[in-house]
Amino acid sequence: MSKILKFTQFSFRDLIVAAAPTVLTIVGICLLAYWLVDPAPPRTVRLGTGQENSAYEDFGKKYATALAKHGVKVTLVPSAGSSENLRNLKEGKVDIAFVQSGSTNEEAAEREGLSSLGSLFVEPLWLFLREEKGKPPITQLTQLRGKKINYGAKGAGSPRLFRQVLELNGVEKDEVQRFSLSNTPATVELLEGRIDGLVFTSAPEAPLIQMLLQTPGIRLFDFNQAEAYSRKLPFLTHVVLPQGIVDLGRNIPSEDYNLIAPTATLVARDDLHSALVDLFVQAASTIHSGAGWFQQQGQFPSAKYTEIPVDPEAAKFYKSGPPLLQRYMTFWLANFFDRMWVLVVALGALILPLSKVIPPLYVWRIRSRVYKWYGQLRAVEQKVEEAQEATRMQVYEEQLKRLDEIEELVNQVSIPLSFADGLYGLRSHIQFVRKRILFLMGEASPAAPATVPV
């Protein structure tokens, strides 16, 4: 009969088993909090741009390139312009879009769940007119009565703005022959002489603007009352197109031109992920921060010049710059750690109370290896006590053999040294029961007294 006892310094396996329910509970709750409380940003976003050859289209491509570096695909959604972009935002057809200031107001934007990511650049109201031989140039908008003017395509921002400007001059809408062509076909019509003028609202970078400024026979209208317009319509700014800005060598334009200009803003739906808001604003700071024809270095992007409430994440960027982690990490890695605060809160709430359960479970699991044999030992005692006089000696002998079996199995139990007292206590109790049975056997057979082994 083997007397070798198995001891270990520590039972790592038992610790794992004891801690498993707690660990799984913590992991499960953390994963649930991670994905439900603050989901990961989507990898695709829809950006409403503008017409072909427009500044909106050109800038949209730049945003797509900038966000592609961070693994976010920007799908460009063309439109007639600002008004259509605003409608597409309200209907959920795009997630973010270029919108001209003055297109809506604060109450309407809040009601529709829209927020501004900041103003990007000024986009003057360009009124190009065909020069007529032998006639003086048009210097007042009242002189447009009876003229054929292309206001811009339906859905663009220029028709609404130009109507407001004409109303300030007392020109009724039926006094001007209105056309609603897109920018490119309208330019063709102007050059062919089939219309007298056309209206854009666009940044000067637009190819059509650059071309018309250098086209002989086409003259830009000078809003010499620009300051008054900016007072009447607060969303407008008075800007000046300097002499020679297009081509210094050819002195184009040959004089300063006063223009009135709304600002282009990035407008997003409230459900656009905050991480994507950060990406767009950072891209805007790269694309629009330089000096231009109508802006100083660093003037844009800005939280100013917009009547739509600025998104909190964008406002934070304009105040403090990009998030700290994104200054040193990739976008996705920084976003992951930024969202880890959810896990920190969950872990802080769970680890301390649940960790108090693990030590008692570990102790119970170790001691249960010893305690379960006490049930076997008690069963032996019961059978000895219940033995009938006729079969008493047979029962005693059977239970002695059962005790040998129990002792053999107990000696094979592996147990940490810190719990050895329990194992030695069990072995001493086995010996105690064995001595008692031998004593009873001696009483039952006086002719052959039992000897009790030491």
Automatic annotation (TrEMBL):
This protein's UniProt keywords: Membrane, Transmembrane, Transmembrane helix
This protein's record includes keyword rRNA-binding: no
Classification via InterPro entries: TRAP_TAXI (IPR011852)
Transmembrane portions of the chain: 12-37, 340-364
The keyword Transmembrane appears for this protein: yes
Protein name according to UniProt: TAXI family TRAP transporter solute-binding subunit
Gene3D superfamilies named in the record: Periplasmic binding protein-like II
One matching Pfam family: NMT1_3
Highest taxon in the source lineage: Bacteria
Organism: Duganella levis
